[in-house]
Amino acid sequence: MTILVIEDDRKTGDYLKKGLIESGYQVDLVRNGTDGLHQALANPYELIVLDVMLPGIDGWQIMSALRAKRDLPVIFLTARDQVSDRIHGLELGADDYLVKPFSFTELVLRIRTLLRRGVMRESDTFQVADLHVDVLRRKVTRKGIDIVLTNKEFALLHLFCKHQGEALSRTLIASEVWDMNFDSDTNVVDVAVKRLRAKIDNPFELKLIHTVRSIGYSFGEDS
C-alpha cells in the first residue's frame, strides 16, 4: 500500500517516511502544498498524511480540492491544536486529525484502522424518494433542483441517508456529525435539523425528516 506524506518540515518528513517504510508501506514524500495536491490527484494512493501549514497552498485548500475529486482516507498531522482547527479539518472531509508532537505508534494504528475501514467503502450515492445525494461530488438535488448545503448540513444529511428508517438520538447525531459530546440541554442538533429541513423538506410536499418524540429524528419516506 502506498501512502503520500505532505509535510514541509524536513526532519518530520524524513522521520515519517523512514518509519512508515519500516512499517511495511510504500511512501512518497512531498514538501510543499502545490506539488502535494498534484501528486494526490495524479496517483492512486491508499492514504494521505497531510500537514496544514505548507508552502504553496495549505492543507485546508488541499483537503477541499481533494474531496471534490477523490475519496480516500486523509489524516491531518499538524501542530494546529485548537478544537476549532480539528473541527474545521473534519468538516472539510478529513478522516482523522492528529496533533504534533505525536506518537508514531498511534499514527500507524490510526493508519491501519482507516485502511481496514477503506476495504468496505460506503455507498457513493443515495436515492431517497425524489432526493438524490452524491457523496463524492457533495452534490444534493431534489426533483432535479440543486440544493446547496454547508459542510455540517451535508454531514447531517449523509448520516440520515445511511440510517434510513432508524430513530437516531440527538446524542448519537451530535457524536457522529460533530465528533464530540454535547450537554443534553443544548439545542445544536435541533437547530441544525431545522436548517436542513428548510432546504430539503419545506419547499416540497413529501417530508423526509421526521421528529421522533423523546428520542430524536428519523429519515425516509415512511419514517
TrEMBL record:
List residues annotated as DNA-binding: 123-221
Is-annotated flag, keyword Phosphoprotein? yes
Query: What domain of life?
Result: Bacteria
Keyword Amino-acid biosynthesis assigned to the entry: answer is: no
The record's annotation in InterPro entries points to: CheY-like_superfamily, CusR-like, OmpR/PhoB-type_DNA-bd, Sig_transdc_resp-reg_receiver, WalR-like, WH-like_DNA-bd_sf
UniProt modified residues of type 4-aspartylphosphate: 51
Could you state one GO biological process linked to this protein?
regulation of DNA-templated transcription
Residue limits of the OmpR/PhoB-type domain?
123-221
Name the record gives this protein: DNA-binding response regulator
The source organism is Caballeronia grimmiae
Q: Give the encoding gene's name.
A: irlR
